[in-house]
Task: structure prediction
Amino acid sequence: MHRISLLLVALPLLGCSNIDDYFSTMVAEGLLLGIEELPAEFADVGLGASATATTFVAEARSLNDVESNLVDNADRVAIAQGDSVADLENLGSGLYETDSSLDADLVYVVGGSYRLQVERSGDAHYVDIVAPAPPDLVGVPGPADLHPANTTITVDLTGQGYNNYLALVAQVDVNGDYELTYTTIPETAGDYIDWIRDRNEVTTVEIPGSAFPSAGSAYIVAVAGVAKAKDADFESLNPLVSNFAAGSASPAAVTTAP
Result:
């Protein structure tokens, strides 16, 4: 079957986006990530900004080769929520990024409507999403429980309605300094595209035992439940290869047994 025929067969299954969007050559792969307040015992630990926005911009010359066609000359890439607009800095190689420590207009508000907008050569391309609530970390040991070192933690996200997740674990010393022992946060455009493709509902998150290497140590476990924009929420971006995801991380304190 010719590629055009495959596309026309697939369109009724993909949602209600404008049919012209499926022929757009503009691609954006965006992530808006927030983090809730740390547990009181880790109040002085600086894990970074409370909100981060990252976007890769590309041209869709091939549905399977977005990473080779990254665009580093967009006129503007921004995240808007109501009247607040945060511009993402062009870091080169198709990557645009900012966080709340650089731009106070970037704030993660649960239930807030956000628009990722890409402007290039006089044209505006955008996608909308409603920011989901942070997850309930069912399965993470409570403050009074000790977790065996080098033992997996399974977080149950069943029924919470997330398409994907991000997780990190940081080991914290007595001075409040920390070292990441585990993360699923994608670093490259290829990593991000592979990570965000899955549209199935996430039910469990497995945090490996290697994330808790030392006995008698304190750890911060943070898991973000991530939701993705629907095809109907894209305008002049190709929804077959574009994505916009948002999520907020719930942090928890975990202590390993002596």
About this structure: Residues 1-22 have pLDDT under 50 and may be disordered.
